[in-house]
Amino acid sequence: MKHQLTALFALADPTRRQVLERLKSEPGLSVSELAQPLPIKMPGLMKHLAVLSDTGLISRTKAGRVVTVSLAANPPSEAAD
Asked: Domains in the chain, start-ordered, CATH in brackets?
C-alpha cells in the first residue's frame, strides 16, 4: 500500500508527468536537455527526478559529468496501471 501511495504521489505532479511524457518520446536525455523546456530551475528539477527515481519510474546513469535519464525498464506495477 505504501508503495502504491508513493507512486501515485509521484504521478500527481504535472511537472513529473511532463518529464515522464518527454522521456517516453525522447529516451535517454541528459538532465540539461530535460531541463531546457521546463519553467523550473535545476534544483527543482533534481528534486522531481529524485522522487521519480525513488519510486522506480526512471533510472539515472552517470558518465563523467553527464547524467542521463531514462524511463525504468520495469516500473512498479501500480504506476503502470
From this structure: 2-75 (1.10.10.10)
